[in-house]
Amino acid sequence: MRAPRALIPLLSVCGAAAVVTAAGVGADIDGLPGGGPAHADGAVRTPPPKATITAVDWNVCGAAEAGCPLGARPAELAKRVAGQLHVTEVGGRKVHANAAFLQEVCSGQVQALKRASWFSSWSWEFAAYPDGPSCVGGQGRLGIALGARAALSGVQTARLPSPSGKRRVALCGEAAAWRTRLCVTQFSPSAEDPQGEWRRKQGRAYAALAGTGTRVVAGGDLAEPPESAVLDPLYRAFAECDQSGTARTGAKTLQDWQGTAVEKDDYLFITKSATVSCTVPAATGKSSDHRPVSAVIRFR
Q: What does the pLDDT read at residue 126?
């Protein structure tokens, strides 16, 4: 098991910046500017309460295609996802997740999670890939999902800049109990964007959508290694849970056909004032071609 990395807060965030709200449901965004309205100097602000978020980011590989071991068995995959969220491992400790950032998940699987007794206090949001396939077994559409053991409000589905016929979306919501903005997405893979042109636009747009608030957690399968310029806007604005200090590092999450981890494609970006411990399993994943990223995030 990879040893966790505890990130020392890299930046003190002064004041409370407003969350970007320029992208409404179904709106197109292309590198939206961050920031928000200025606050009057000397205004009295009540600091948000401390919060601990135990997050799992995972491309669950729900499509019925080569490389997705359980894509043709969606009910079994839903149970695997539930099990991963119920008990995940961070820093050698088994913990219960209270936030989920899922990609390539079927809408029917999200409905199954909603019905599961362990998730009775969770809120779930789903956004289908606009040009994505249907899932097998009447499990609805393939897409992304955001789950939290807290009420979600102000939920937005925003279209990212994407190749024609291969549109991508991001999904965000506010968890008021944690005073935290949560976002999830999946960037265009290289097969759809061989030159990375659209991914560069997606990186700028996603960073802007996540916003500049004092508490942000933004996850996803971003289809690029940490050193890629595509991720520059996100690394400038946030800390990634598995990096060491300011170095852009992290355990590999994407597996090849033999189950060998070959590249880090999966991320949890977090406001730099937080502290975080992050773990990626060392063992080969049996239900997806991606290994989950699990993190314990503490906002003080």
A: 98
Contact at 8 Å (CB) between 285 and 291? yes
pLDDT per residue as tens digits for the range 20-35: 333 343 445 444 434 4
Percent of the chain beyond pLDDT 90? 81
Reading the block at residue 283, the tokens are 């063992």
Percent share of the chain, pLDDT over 70: 85
- The reported pTM is 0.86
